[in-house]
Amino acid sequence: MKSFHKWWLAALLILCAAVSIVFTLYNDSFYHQTIATVTENTVTKTEAVTDQFNNKDTLYTQQLTAKITNGEKKGAVITLINQYSDSKGFDNEYEIGHDLFIEKNKLAEKNDVHSYDIVGVKRDVHIITLLWVFIAVLIAVGRLQGLFSVISLFINAAIIWTIISIYTTYDAYLLILCIVGIFLFTILSLLLVNGFNEKTMTAILSTLVGTFVSLGLAFIVLKLTNEQGMRYEELQFITRPYKTVFMAGLFIGSLGAVMDIAITMSSSLYGLYEKNPAISLKRLAQSGREIGKDIMGTMTNILFFAYVSGSIPMLLLYFKNQSAFGYTLSINLSLELVRALVGGIGIVLAIPISLVIVLFFIKRKQAIR
Questions:
Q1: Backbone phi, then psi, for 230, in 5-degree steps?
Q2: 228-286, pLDDT tens digit by residue?
Q3: Which of 117, 186, 280, 304 has its CA 20 to 30 A from that of 258?
Q4: Please, are residues 298 and 305 in contact by the beta-carbon 8 Å criterion?
Q5: Could you report the per-residue pLDDT of 34-45, keeping only the tens digit for each?
Q6: Residue 202 above 80 pLDDT?
């Protein structure tokens, strides 16, 4: 019976994947923006250029023939002009089969000339396909727990979208919304993935305590140092208080790392206790410290690489344009390093906090026995 349910669930997921992918292939009519599919591509001009820093590049001008696939002009054949470079820093090369979002050129429209500009690429097919590959791998490895992880991921995404919507619509206090979000993320994620049991409860408590303690310490340090050395330039383009937005990012970013440590410590110690209920608290504490040492270094490095890797393109751009080493690092890495350090503090603190909480609950169980 269980085997039948597994095959039924697998068939349902495959059907959903196939339907969603096919839908995105033929959903042009559901878009308000005009979409055109490239049918011909010709490079009409090639030009070598050199900037003031002696950086060399090549500019290409391509003439595209495309067919409009939705809206009032559906079926019309148009010509598009696109310029791209070898570096592709701020441009794209388009090929036959690409679906492009286009809009009427306003200046040309005044002169009654049917000219269109390219404003983007329709990528929903690739995104949906990649999403289903991710879901398939997660379920194949984690089975039912993997499925619950997928559900948890979508729920968390919906919570983040709700927080952002409430903040932008009603101008609510962002940090309060993020604190509420932390409780929801932690409780729903751990309950869905690990079920309702004592191990999950201790992991939830450890995650919440570890997250808020690390964030509290980070907030105190930032206040005492008056945030010296932090460069908020990359956030100043938003029309919101950028320091508040940065702190909100710290709240959400630190949670994942602390949650991972908490559930690892809780699962490991409860696993040892379940195998040997007579094990002493001292032995459990020693085991917990050893487990913490093993995962602390790797998790801290993972967090550092995850944050810093996003700045590599900008670092290359600054260095390529002869920017000073210290200035480049400060302008691009100051916020990322703070995020990594706060997350690292959370990881380190989560180990003793989780250990103390788990030992407390196990001690109660041993006393009851």
A1: -90, 135
A2: 767 776 666 777 777 778 888 887 877 877 888 888 888 888 888 888 887 788 888 88
A3: 280
A4: no
A5: 899 999 988 888
A6: yes
Contact present, 217 and 254 (Cβ < 8 Å): no
Contacts (Cβ under 8 Å, ≥6 apart) of 122: 28, 31, 35, 99, 100, 101
From CA 163, how far away is CA 177, in angstroms rounded? 6
Sign of CA dihedral 89, 90, 94, 98: positive
Are 68 and 34 a contacting pair, CB within 8 Å?
yes
Strand partners, 19: none
What letters, b where the CB count within 10 A reaches 16 and e where it falls short, cover 266-277? bbbbbebbeeee
The one-character DSSP state at 323 is: -
Q: Report, as an integer, the average pLDDT of 313-320.
A: 77
Distance of CA 122 to the CA centre of its chain: 20
The strand order across the sheet containing 56-68 reads: 77-85, 56-68, 34-50, 99-104, 116-121
Residues 25 and 93: beta-carbon distance below 8 Å = no
Strands 77-85 and 56-68, bridge-based pairing: antiparallel
Strand extents, DSSP E, 105-165: 116-121
Measured CA to CA in angstroms, residue 143 lies from 81, 102, 280 at distances of: 49, 43, 34
Q: Tokens 């148009």, residue? A: 78
CA dist 46 and 8 (Å) reads 56
332: which 2 tokens?
């691009």
Structure tokens at 59: 């500019």
305-327 burial: b if 16+ Cβ within 10 Å, else e: ebbbeebeeebeebeeeebeeee
For residue 199, count CB atoms less than 10 angstroms from its CB and return exposed for 0-12, middle for 13-18, buried for 19 or more: buried
Q: N- to C-terminal Cα distance for the chain?
A: 37
Cα–chain center distance at 128 = 16
d(CA 37, CA 74): 11
Single out the residue of 118, 40, 37 nearest to residue 82, CA to CA. 118
Predicted TM-score (pTM) of the model is 0.72
Here the tokens at position 8 are 């039924």
Identify whether the C-beta of residue 263 lies closer than 8 Å to the C-beta of residue 190: yes
Look at residue 111 and give its three-state secondary structure: coil
Q: Quick one: CA torsion of 142, 146, 147, 148, rounded to 10 degrees?
A: 130
The identity of residue 336, as a single letter, is: E
